[in-house]
Write a structure and sequence with these properties.
Radius of gyration: 15 Å
Helix content: 10-25%
Oligomer: single chain
């Protein structure tokens, strides 16, 4: 039987980060609502990543809710380091990037959520951020990508 925290089916997001002219995208599943009023979300970002470096400098990120048909992006966004692989350039060449609120984002994501850092704590191998929601847009109606789909396709274990 799975460990209790691996039993739930959660949405898969891509985090868009930037600082000046540097951009990055990464995969994130450690995301949750934290407050209704004001609307806040918690997002855990893995230590040692370009995503974390940019998020700490800019204090703003964009969460992109991925669709099931974006599953092929997970290995490029989540298993390759932005420190060694130009994710944005790769995706721009494939016509998969657009811009929203001065961020480079995935063109066919279900929704974008613009977040501004409120607070953070060291949570072990991740930094846990609490963000204020400052804007969002729903882009299209399609089935969301979830952890169970990544498990079914053997992209992740657990």
């Amino acid at each position: 039987m799975k460990r209790p925290w691996n039993r739930t089916d959660l949405p898969v997001y891509s985090i868009g980060t930037k600082f000046k002219e540097s951009y990055n995208l990464n995969i994130c599943t450690y995301v949750s609502g934290a407050s209704m009023d004001p609307k806040r979300m918690s997002v855990a970002i893995y230590k040692g990543t370009k995503t974390l470096e940019l998020a700490e400098k800019e204090k703003m990120i964009v969460l992109q809710m991925l669709s099931k048909d974006q599953i092929n992006l997970v290995k490029h966004l989540g298993f390759k380091s932005g420190k060694h692989f130009e994710k944005i350039s790769y995706l721009e060449k494939k016509g998969l990037i657009t811009e929203w609120k001065d961020f480079k984002v995935l063109r066919n994501s279900l929704a974008y959520i613009l977040l501004k850092q409120y607070d953070s704590i060291d949570a072990g191998d991740h930094i846990l951020f609490v963000y204020d929601v400052v804007g969002f847009i729903n882009n299209r109606d399609a089935e969301g990508l979830t952890l169970n789909e990544l498990r079914r396709k053997k992209i992740i274990r657990g």
